[in-house]
Each structure stands twice: as C-alpha cells, then as structure tokens.
Design goal:
Elements: H1 2-28, H2 32-57, H3 65-89, H4 94-114, H5 120-140, H6 148-166, E1 181-182, H7 191-196, E2 201-214, E3 220-226, E4 235-238, E5 242-249, E6 259-261, E7 285-291, E8 296-301, H8 306-312, E9 315-321, E10 329-338, E11 341-344, E12 351-354, E13 360-367, E14 373-378, E15 382-387, E16 390-391, E17 403-405, E18 410-416, E19 422-426, E20 431-436, E21 476-489, E22 492-499, E23 510-512, E24 517-524, E25 530-534, E26 539-544, E27 547-548, E28 555-556, E29 558-561, E30 566-572, E31 578-583, H9 586-590, E32 594-599, E33 602-603
Parallel strand pairs: 1-33, 2-5, 4-9, 10-13, 12-20, 21-24, 23-32
Antiparallel strand pairs: 2-3, 5-7, 6-8, 8-9, 10-11, 13-18, 14-17, 14-19, 15-16, 15-18, 19-20, 21-22, 24-30, 25-29, 25-31, 26-27, 26-28, 26-30, 31-32
Helix pairs in contact: 1-2, 1-4, 2-3, 3-4, 3-5, 4-5, 5-6
The structure holds CU-O-CU linkage (C2O) and copper (II) ion (CU).
C-alpha cells in the first residue's frame, strides 16, 4: 500500500510539472484558455500531492522526509510566486509558470535519484537548480537586464554550497579498521584437541572448480562448482559434531571462500573475503572449523564476487540433525535458477520420491536465488516446522496456503505422506517435487494454487517466552532505510542500492558492545524487495509495519523487506567480531546494500573494499 501511494505521488508530481510547463508554453503562445486550464490541473495535482504525502506519512517519516522538507515546500512556494506574478503583471507570466513546473519536478527527481535523507545540501541544490533553470528560461524568452549577473550568482551559489554539503566526504577509516582483536584470530575449536576430548570430528573437503554440469533435463550449464557439482556436496552432520571443512580452489580465478549462511560461527570462520580472511586463490586452501551446536537447515556459499559466483553454482546445503533424529523421510531441497531453469538440487524436471503412506516427511527447502519463491503443497495439509533452521513453537496444520520463501531463507515443511501423491509446487509449478507411494504412481490432477493465500507468519504458531521482546530496553538502536539513489560504488557514481542514502563502503558501521541488546528498524523506500541477511546472529522479529508478531517467536537470519514495509527486529550481540549485514539479493549487495556491524575492540585487519 505504502509503495503504491509513493508511486502515485511521484506520478502526481510529474503530471503537475508537465501541466505547469504546458501552461507556460500556452501562456507564451497567448493561448489563454488552455493556459488557465493547465494551471488549474497543475494546482489540483499539487493539492493531491499534499493529501498523498499525508497518507504516506502514516507509514513512517522515512517515506516522506524528502517530500516534506524539500519537494513540497519548493512546489508550494513557486506556485504561490506564480500566483503573485499574475497579480502583479495581470496576466499569466510564462517564466513564473515554468519555474513552478521545475519545482514540481524536484519531487520525483529527489525520490528516485537521491532518496532518504534529504538534508540541507540537497535542499540547496534543488532550490538553486530550480532558480538556474528559471534564469535560463527567462533568458531564452529574450529577456535582458543589467541585474542579470547578480541573479545568476544568486541561483548558482546555493547549488555550489549544496553540492559541497551533500557530497559525502570520503570515508574515514571505518572503526573496525583500527586497533583491536583481529577477527581473523577468532577461530573455531582445534580439531585435535576436540578429538582428544571425545568430540566427534566430521571432516569434509570441498574443491572449487569450473565444470560443465548437466541438469536432469539434459540441459548443460557452464558452472562454478564445489567438487564438480552444483549444488555442491550436501553436508549433513549431527548436533555436537565438530565440522572441519577444507576448502581448496582448483581454478576459480576470482577466488573463493565458504560462508556458513545462517550458522553463527566464530567470526574467523565466517568466510567473508577481504574481512575475515583473504579469498582462497587457485592452488590455495583454507580450513574451516566450527561446532555444530544448533540443529536445522542452513547452506554454504562463496563470499567473494558472490553475486556472480553463487549464481554460477558455488553453494551447497548444510543440515545439522539432532542426535535422536525423528523417524521418517528427510529431504533437503535447494532451489536455484541455472540460466532460465529453476532446479531443485540438479533436477529441473518434476521429481518423485517414493515414500510409504503414513511416513512423516520433513522437506527442507532452501532458497539460494536472489529473489523469493512461492511454495505450495498440494495433496495434504502440512506444518511449517522451522524457519531459517529454528523450529517454530506449535506450528498449526495448514492447507491450501502458500509460503513465501525469501532469498537466502529456509523453510522446513512437515507433511505426512498419503496413499495419494503429495506435490510441492515452486512458483506454481516451475519446479515440482512429488512424494508418492510408488515411482510409477499416477500423477494427480494438476491443482491451480495461484489463488491460495500466503501464510501470514506474523501470527503463525503459538507464542513462547523469548529472552527479549518489543518492549525490552535496548542498548543500541539502528535504522536502515533501504533505497535507490545515485551514489559512489567502486569509485564510480552508480544508480546504487543504498542504506541511509549511502552505498557500501560509505554506509556508517553499526557499532555495538559485547552483550548489547540491539534493535534494528529496516525500512524499504525502494520499489525492490530486499532480503536482509545478518551474519553471525539470528534476529528475533518484533514488529511488522508497527504491529507486533503474535505467533510463534520467529528467529531469522534472512527476512524479506518488501517495498513500503518496516520491519523491527532485535538481536543480542553475543558473537564478537565484525559482521556483514546486507541484502541477499546479491546484485543489490554488489551495488552498495551492505553495512558492517562491528563490536567495539575488534578489528578486521585484512579489510579492503570488496563487492560483498
Ligand atoms: Cu548468504 Cu553474506 O551471505
Ligand atoms: Cu536488495
């Protein structure tokens, strides 16, 4: 709703600008009637903008800040000036009308190119630009005056001053670059010591290399793989194990790392190239080790050039099962788009798993793509048992309800196989997984799930005690306003994905102390969905668009902030280090939507600017 209102307001402003300019043209051409009509339209559109902005503001100040502080005042003042000019000149003066048009256009330009927050600098640039455009128009209309040089100066000065204020100063060294405990030194347990004390050690080796993979349909894909496969090997361990993974790089020239998505490992194992380690170059290796103390569904992927590298196949699943794993079938289903094919694992055609009727089945669906997928289960009711690896409290049985699975997120579905096949449809059938009593069981009649409602996770399951909640006292609060805007990325101005008006690495680091209770407000002003992912921590969902979550506690590592939405989440700062907090649409991350969350007293010595 908010996103749509923002669009309508941008449209109203554009129409208003066009009407003012049209009126100016008609007035100059002495087409009086048309000019009056267009002025009326321009004023009505302007009034509509005031109404729309008031409506948008109810969703939060962030959504209207640049409109209230800059765009609307400019539009109103110039419209009033055009009115005053009529009174003085006793006719519609084209230049004044044109100026009102330029001022109306400031709104859409600010909203789409600059975004939040618009400060003094932006306001000065906008006002000066309107004045300059007015001067140019005045001159083009054949006017002369001895005082013109002063007027030019008067218009130019605010632009220069505004640019000086608005252009971000070059980043001073981020706090995490300073002195402190090096994050590279915070490693997992030593395998030899662990083995000596009786901890089971599970060893894996993953070798990154280019390979041509063949999907089940026969379609071939030039991939970047772990062990020649995409997805890479499924890592399955038992709670309590010490996981030791040796990463080797055969020929991935960009370099590779392993990031344990959703697993809160010590920061030195987090696999962020350029921050917690250097990328592993061809011929090199790196050993990761962490205790698998938390059960659930996770995944791993490279964190160097990850936009491209994950898309090409450098990812796999990580499942940690409890010691007393429940009986039944347990399937891990990583979704990934290879080119145009949506595959489950390496299967891009419907797949059937033979399961005896009455068997409980856990479907662990992992979204390794950049955008959300829609899951629908036909043929049986189900429970959403876990989100991002954490079991939900008393998840109720639901039927004919779809699930939205954000990029990077995981959903565990529990279903009981029946005598008739049960079918998981991804995106309405772009990918299909069937559970059937026999491989040759007749396929059920297709079900159209498009009209099914989406499960409302803000009130699914039963509440349970949590260590903190919406009304706790928070030690730190951060707001992240997600938007698009022109900003510097890799040394070049780009139409970036911004956080608080800046693109990484110019976004202010979120600095916390060990033990802090941290509140994050994430606001999406843009027209894209942003699956926000925090490394090293799980966040507890507190409020969605101002309303508290009333169902099962929802602990997430990746949550989808859709256009116009406001999420409030909280975390306990209990895993010291320097961490990434970024959009998991990796294209957005590569274009700026990254923040660091840094603990005081910790430093990332190998820190350099990198593309997430
Ligand atoms: Cu799954 Cu920083 O990423
Ligand atoms: Cu994004």
């Amino acid at each position: 709703m908010t996103a749509r209102l923002i669009d309508v307001e941008v449209l109203a402003a554009t129409l208003s600008a066009a009407a003012w300019l049209g009126a100016a043209w008609c007035a100059a051409a002495r087409r009086h009637r048309a000019a009056v009509l267009l002025v009326t339209a321009a004023v009505l559109a302007m009034l509509a903008r005031f109404g729309l902005v008031a409506a948008i503001a109810r969703a939060g100040w962030w959504f209207v800040q640049e409109k209230v502080s800059v765009a609307l005042p400019l539009a109103a003042v110039t419209a009033a000036a055009a009115g005053a000019a009529v009174v003085v000149a006793r006719r519609l003066t084209p230049v004044a009308l044109a100026v009102a048009g330029y001022a109306a256009a400031v709104g859409p330009v600010l909203t789409l190119l600059a975004g939040y927050p618009a400060g003094w600098g932006t306001g000065l640039v906008a006002a000066g630009a309107v004045a300059l455009a007015g001067m140019v128009t005045w001159r083009a209309a054949g006017n002369r005056s001895r005082r013109a040089p002063f007027a030019w100066l008067f218009a130019l000065a605010p632009v220069v001053l505004g640019v000086a204020i608005a252009v971000p100063a070059p980043v001073s060294a981020a706090p995490e670059d300073g002195h402190g405990v090096a994050v590279t030194s915070l490693r997992g347990p030593d395998p030899a010591a662990a083995a000596a004390s009786g901890i089971p050690v599970r060893r894996f080796t993953l070798t990154a290399r280019t390979a041509t993979i063949t999907l089940s349909s026969g379609q071939r894909f030039q991939a970047w793989t772990f062990d020649g496969r995409a997805p890479g090997p499924a890592l399955e361990v038992t709670q309590g194990d010490l996981v030791v993974v040796t990463l080797r790089n055969a020929d991935i020239a960009a370099g590779v790392t392993l990031h344990w998505h959703g697993y809160d490992v010590p920061v030195g194992e987090d696999g962020v190239a350029g921050m917690t380690q250097d990328a592993v170059r061809p011929g090199e290796a790196f050993e990761y080790r962490f205790r698998a103390d938390r059960v659930g569904t996770y995944w791993y992927h490279t964190h160097e050039a990850s936009d491209r590298a994950v898309r090409l196949g450098l990812y796999g699943t990580l499942v940690v099962r409890p010691r007393d794993a429940a009986a039944g079938a347990d399937l891990t289903l990583p979704l990934h788009t290879f080119g145009t094919a949506l595959a489950v694992g390496d299967r891009d055609q419907p797949t059937t798993h033979v399961v005896a009727p009455g068997t409980p089945v856990r479907l662990r669906v992992v979204n390794t793509d950049d955008g959300p997928h829609r899951l629908a289960l036909t043929g049986a009711p189900f429970r959403l048992a876990a989100v991002d690896g954490t079991d939900l409290n008393e998840p109720g049985v639901v039927d004919r309800v779809a699930l939205r699975l954000p990029a990077g997120a995981r959903a565990d579905l529990l279903v009981t196989a029946g005598p008739a096949p049960v079918t998981l449809l991804v995106d309405g059938g772009r990918a299909t997984v069937r559970l059937a009593p026999a491989a040759d069981a007749a396929a059920p009649a297709p079900v159209d799930t498009a009209a099914w409602p989406t499960l409302d996770q803000t009130r699914y399951g039963a509440p349970a005690a949590t260590p903190f909640g919406p009304d706790s006292h928070f030690d730190k609060r951060f707001t992240m306003v997600l938007d698009r805007g022109v900003s510097m990325v890799d040394g070049l101005p780009k139409y970036a994905f911004t956080v608080n008006g800046r693109a990484y690495p110019n976004v202010a680091t979120q600095t916390v102390r060990t033990g802090d209770l941290v509140h994050l407000t994430v606001v999406n002003r843009s027209r894209d969905t942003h699956p926000m992912h925090l490394h090293g921590h799980h966040v507890l969902a507190l409020r969605y668009n101002g309303r508290p979550f009333t169902g099962s506690p929802l602990w997430m590592d990746t949550f989808d902030v859709q256009p116009g939405e406001v999420w409030e989440v909280a975390l306990r700062a209990d895993n010291p280090g320097v961490w990434m907090n970024h959009c998991h649409n990796l294209k957005h991350a590569a274009k700026g939507m990254v923040v660091h969350l840094a603990y005081e007293g910790y430093a990332a010595p190998s820190h350099h600017v990198h593309g997430a």
